[in-house]
């Protein structure tokens, strides 16, 4: 009986000590965890600052090629419907365009992916998208909108690329893209390979922070793919699909081909002419 009680007491002592030790360890752990979180946050903001300083797409950046900008923000959305700051701009690529009319919609501020965009930035991008679809429709062209979000840790500035293509090819684009996505990356993917965007946009289809590729066809929702292996997924994936459909040379999309200032100016003037009658940044009564 006594032995039994001692045994029990010992057991309790042991448990008490153990509890004490573990809660002390916990306190220490909390401190360490806090410190870790703090240094991670500092590291992240330092990385973000570093990527913003060199960013060629931030509107406030000295690196931005302002002469390639075709349109900025939307007065109609900003002033008349809801008073928010201008959020996005439309510009042409600094290298040789992959197809005539190749352009991109970018947020003015340093945002890294559509999955992290606020509603106001997103809705202004969609306004530009609708305008481009209308503009290319008048030229009997379809267009695809693509976003490639890779290496999330590098925090690169996002761009929604728009590539116009002849209507008969545009009709085929969903088939080509679906096949290319099914064949890309890892054969045994952890995530569903093709995410359907016909009834939900990318922000509701792919969790924030994951690398992905997304394509939409004109005003129709297209597909997204969560990139499983960034080594096996080329950054020019979407352009390669369009380039293949159009029978272009691979050098047109693999690397940027430099373009001189005069040629850049020419394509901007041409694009501005197409854009003017549809310009969504002008209130209807302005024009
Ligand atoms: Zn930026």
TrEMBL record:
Phylogenetic lineage: Eukaryota, Metazoa, Chordata, Craniata, Vertebrata
Span of domain Cwf19-like C-terminal: 44-178
Family stated for the protein in its record: Belongs to the CWF19 family.
Highest taxon in the source lineage: Eukaryota
Residue span(s) of domain Cwf19-like protein C-terminal: 187-281
Organism expressing this protein natively: Liparis tanakae
GO cellular component, one term: post-mRNA release spliceosomal complex
Name of a matching Pfam family: CwfJ_C_2
Name the record gives this protein: CWF19-like protein 2
GO biological process, one term: mRNA splicing, via spliceosome
